[in-house]
Amino acid sequence: MRTLIKQAHLHDARGDHGVHDLYLRGDRIEGVDLGGEVDHTIDAQGNLVTPAFIDLHAHLREPGQEEKEDLASGLAAAAAGGFGTVVSMANTTPPVDDPGLVAALALKAERLGLARLRPAATLSRGLKGEGLTDFAALKAAGAVMITDDGIPVADAHLMRRACEYAQDLGLVIQTHSEEPSLRQGGVMHEGAVSQRLGLPGNPAAAEAAMIGRDCEIALLTGARVHLAHVSSKRGMQVVEWFKAQGAPVTCEVTPHHLTLTDAALASFDPIYKVAPPLRTDEDVAYLREALRRGVVDNIGTDHAPHTRAEKERDLLEAPFGIGNLEVTFALLYTELVGSGALSLERLLELFQAGPARVMGWPTPTLEPGEPADLVVLDLEASRPVTPATFRSKAKFSPWSGQTLRGWPVMTLVGGRVAFEGV
């Protein structure tokens, strides 16, 4: 199968290459402006064609929580958001702590023909924070990351043992940085807004303290530790300090922590209830600056869908998390690139080369022979967020009705069209 993507404005980690005809052969990139017979033609109409995005942090809920999301809906949502590869979190029911389950998830996802799935597996057996899982067997089955994400690893000795084990195997440990005894029952950021609303708060100190502990363990063991969803100025300052000391740590920021603040909770709407919580304007500004300065390694969606009934409970009882795979790029392109806060090149790096570096994967490029995992972006397309059209089962959004610019219009995975929009 030979495919021509004509009038493609090509861009990858090497730079902007202008408008060309891009040829694919099977599941690989063949080259540029080659000519000759093709089996299929896609007209990119001058839109940006670039390597498909990588998300290192998505909750796809399968197995056991399919009422919230499943592999089919979650990977379809990922493709609609421009993602060609997704690392699925392991806090499912049962947790992904068994090599057979890792292999089964990977096989099922491959058969779907949507975005690629790279499963994460749990750090502790049953997500109980006690004994370690068999990292070697999990890696052999296809697990690419070890994490108890959703639940902090409270036991520092267990985290040290996990890091030593992971370092021997070349695996990345991803953390959930909230010190449990400081977090307590907080449902939002601890600060002026939580005090005014009379809601239990979760202080930024809980995040900063756990980040500091895990960075020290990374320095001690040499393990690669990836700090998930850093949400606060103080937490990011701790990351910066340890990076300057040579700690082998990386970090991500989510779209919601870059665009929303704790002021949204004044509505008492649980759609804004996330973990870690939305912080202050000062925190958002600092995270954006950390993006610009290169402190942040990647954007992680932390796509965490729930049923509408769950998110319509009382704020104190509703679960943490929101779905965002389909809007993440357009949201950040609008809010950051559109405002001049970040360059397009840097934003793309955070979705492509950045996450690849975190995992030790090859940098995605448009070089001949590279996988034909591509996204076509219409940077001029402007439309409101319409959750009813989401591929995800979570058909509601904090950004519902907000007009965003810069939408994926097609995603190819292995040379196949996994998503085609308007």
Describe the SSE topology.
Elements: E1 2-12, E2 15-25, E3 28-32, E4 40-43, E5 48-51, E6 53-58, H1 71-80, E7 83-88, H2 99-112, E8 116-121, H3 135-141, E9 145-147, H4 156-169, E10 172-175, H5 180-183, E11 188-189, H6 192-197, E12 201-202, H7 204-221, E13 225-227, H8 233-244, E14 249-253, H9 255-259, H10 281-293, E15 298-299, H11 308-311, H12 328-337, H13 344-351, H14 353-359, E16 374-384, E17 403-413, E18 416-420
Parallel strand pairs: 1-4, 1-5, 6-7, 7-8, 8-9, 9-10, 10-13, 11-12, 13-14, 14-15
Antiparallel strand pairs: 1-2, 2-3, 5-16, 16-17, 17-18
Helix pairs in contact: 2-3, 4-7, 7-8
Report on this model:
The protein has 422 residues and is an alpha/beta fold. It has two domains: 2-48 and 369-383 and 395-420, Roll (Urease, subunit C, domain 1), CATH 2.30.40; 52-359, Metal-dependent hydrolases (TIM Barrel), CATH 3.20.20. The protein is 31% helix and 24% strand. The protein contains 14 helices and 18 strands. It has helices at 71-80, 99-112, 135-141, 156-169, 180-183, 192-197, 204-221, 233-244, 255-259, 281-293, 308-311, 328-337, 344-351, 353-359, and strands at residues 2-12, 15-25, 28-32, 40-43, 48-51, 53-58, 83-88, 116-121, 145-147, 172-175, 188-189, 201-202, 225-227, 249-253, 298-299, 374-384, 403-413, 416-420. Strands 1, 2, 3, 4, 5, 16, 17 and 18 form an eight-stranded mixed β-sheet that branches. It has an eight-stranded parallel β-sheet with strand order 6-7-8-9-10-13-14-15. It has a two-stranded parallel sheet with strand order 11-12. α3 (135-141) links the parallel β8 (116-121) and β9. α2 packs parallel to α3 (135-141), α4 (156-169) crosses α7 (204-221) and α7 (204-221) packs parallel to α8.
